[in-house]
Amino acid sequence: MKMVQFTEYGGPDVLEVKEVERPSPSGRHVLIEAEAIGVNYADTARREGRYVVPTPLPFVPGTEVAGVVREVGPDVQAIRPGQRVVALVESGGYAEFVAVDERAVVSLPDGMDVQQAAALPVQGLSAYHILKTMSRLEDGETVLVHAAAGGVGTLAVQLAKRFGAKTVIATASTEEKRELARRLGADVTIDYTQNDWTKAVMEATDGRGVD
Fold this sequence. Notes:
The protein is of the alpha+beta class. The protein folds into two domains: about 1-120, Medium-chain alcohol dehydrogenases, catalytic domain (Quinone Oxidoreductase, Chain A, domain 1, Alpha-Beta Complex), CATH 3.90.180; about 120-205, NAD(P)-binding Rossmann-like Domain (Rossmann fold), CATH 3.40.50.720.
């Protein structure tokens, strides 16, 4: 199979396509044939050697994989060959086939696009935990979402509304991005490149600020 790895830190040019043997799943691992993968800032930081944890070389980046299960290990309990799934992995997602523990695998509902699914594990879980685990968002509260047109931001805007936020204030640097945030449910949009953007937040909340 083909995979992408780097043996030195640097720009995109350090990424190399390699031919390697396809892995065989053991234990509770399943083998996913990748149809879509996520590309995240973490992958870029890994490649540049500036991630929050060490990146050993050689390294195969990629933490999000969506596709079809082709094989399963002997101890797999819930996942079966032929299932459409998405998985969150530590690394190794830039490959045609990825072996991953079934406990990190989620079955896809019928009709869900694999490209959409591949965008969910990192950004989706980040947006969820920021809003619910850390911020403990409650009904009727006001939420400020920075970089609202980015991966985490677009999901955070939508989730905040679903979680009961009364007002979602979204910041973004261009009118096109702010329009996207409005389409996704933002009640107020602000250009954070302006020096007085914090004043705009206070005006939008009648001087109260956000929760």
